[in-house]
Design a protein that fits this description.
0% strand; 14 helices; mainly alpha; flat; 2 domains
Length: 289
Amino acid sequence: MESQKPRTLLMPRVLKKFKMSKLMIYFILMTFFFISIMPVLYMVLAALKDSNELNGNPFAIPHSLTLKNIVEAWTVGNMGKYFINSIIVAFPRVIVILILSSLAGYAFGKLKFPGRNALFYFFLLGLMVPIQAMIIPLYYNIQSMGLINTYWAMIIPNFGLSMPFAIFMMRAFFRDLPDELMDSAKIDGCNEFQTFFHVYLPLMVPAITSLFVFEFMWAWNDFLLPLLFVYDDTYRTLPLGLMFFSGEYTANQSLIAAGVSISIVPIIVVYIIFQRKFIEGMTAGSVKG
């Protein structure tokens, strides 16, 4: 009984240290959370502030909130048209990349054919070449095809630019799936396409969702290619349209904040919808049974 007394006396101290360390962890996490959220919060408040109030004291809490800037950015700033253009450009790009990278990832991850590794490494070379090194030949190719000032000029080049990362990601996920599934499918009489479509593809939903979120975010925020290939306001996307809210000597901060607030809504919505599958895809293979 006497030997148990020191232990009972130590327990409150241990619990107290444990609670303090836990509180410190929560404090650090909350600090980083507020540091991360502050720019977004400031941008949204700037979009809801009156222009005079924003110019007078940009960091002050607004006395009143108004949707005037958002309405003006959507109508006068032509954000509605830019929004539609971004949808027209982003979704075909994302869908085609998902289809092609899934097929390529299955081929490189599960099928055995001569030169498989060499061809895969050839695709990976695309990750090492910066897009800035391809701008001039890319521009002349698009110009020779007569695609300047078209949606296709912003869609077609990204099929090649985005495929190396997409193939690399999908191959990694396919390689984590057991080969026994393919053997069982062959015994049941499935060909390669049926094995891919009916057996492996349903298991790849988290990976496809993760790639969809990444590609949609990159496609939605793409600025360089629209800047290179589009001069007509009819085809401008949201990131390019925001640039024209700034004049040569002045910039309408309220309209810029309103435009950026509008442009981030689809990305937030897509992430919220696919959040669970996205996290599953990112953590797949991290824990081995």
